[in-house]
């Protein structure tokens, strides 16, 4: 006799290995295109979502966060950390997992790794903002900071927005060389530069994606000219920024959720009432985005829970066509819903019987 869980107890789980399998089956560029559409679709129905700034636990080395939201039909949350010091120990700066559940019953629908999925959805969100705000005819993308997120960012901008020329800079030459090698293998035209000033020169789109947990000036005011669109995605916690304040003062600033971005984003440098525009309003056509070719647009992206919801929703749909998951026994399912104790006791009896059945007889000893 074996102790087998019922079907109601089983929940699909997407491991890192299965996530990689899924991405290869679909193709990374196609994944990024599909995720971009999923993220934008949910931004367009922004009023349907519960919204709250993420719950953050800060420490000397980093931060651990929970990011929940619901559209009233499904609920999702992500657990994620950000520890820049981890690379010294050979660990990821960011690791994550998430869960999608059914609001009507409260039962989980899917559990998934989200380290890879977060990289994909962050790149997709940048692509959404860029598509809405970029100058007409842009082709060149400067990627300042060439860490774990950089290839995903560049590939999303290429697949979604046609930015097929990438100009790279990182303070770590080894990281820049790795990124360049990977992107060239993916078919992009890549240029490596000795300074951020050189990298942004002539670029219509600039993405900053650095990891240091400190107030920093990755871009100075003189580096950002008229008509440029900037994705500032490295600043994502209190005390961590990348842009000189004067850039913000010259830019039209677009954000995900102001209550969170004013705490964590570039605009933490500004007065609490400094005007910003919410990205969902632009995507719904309620307010203008780019008005002219000389306007500087800035997406102050810190990451918001609806984007993780979109990623998990997309993944759950993809599992219908791709067998890239395993089933986990994580929900107790007694024969009688109120008899949880009885289920526990019967399991003990069954376990004892199974153990006795496996013991050798006295004649065999």
CATH class of the largest domain: Alpha Beta
CATH homologous superfamily title of the largest domain: NAD(P)-binding Rossmann-like Domain
Number of helices: 11
Instruction: Briefly note the CATH topology name of the largest domain.
Output: Rossmann fold
Shape: elongated
- Terminal CA distance reads 23 Å
Output the helix-strand order. EHHEEEEEHEHEHEHEEEEHEHEHEHEH
Number of domains: 2
- The largest sheet has its strands arranged as 9-8-7-10-12-16-14-15
CATH architecture classification of the largest domain:
3-Layer(aba) Sandwich
Question: Proportion of β residues?
Answer: 15-25%
Q: Give the C-alpha Rg.
A: 24 Å
Protein name: Ornithine cyclodeaminase
Pfam family, one: OCD_Mu_crystall
Topology of this protein?
Layout: E1 10-14, H1 16-26, H2 28-44, E2 55-58, E3 63-70, E4 74-82, E5 96-102, E6 108-113, H3 115-133, E7 140-144, H4 150-161, E8 165-169, H5 173-185, E9 189-192, H6 196-200, E10 205-208, E11 215-219, E12 229-232, E13 241-243, H7 245-250, E14 252-255, H8 258-264, E15 277-278, H9 279-283, E16 297-300, H10 305-318, E17 326-329, H11 340-357
Parallel strand pairs: 1-6, 7-8, 7-10, 8-9, 10-12, 11-13, 12-16, 14-15, 14-16
Antiparallel strand pairs: 1-17, 2-3, 3-4, 4-5, 5-6
Organism: Paracoccus aerius
Protein name: Ornithine cyclodeaminase
InterPro entries: NAD(P)-bd_dom_sf, ODC_Mu_crystall, ODC_N
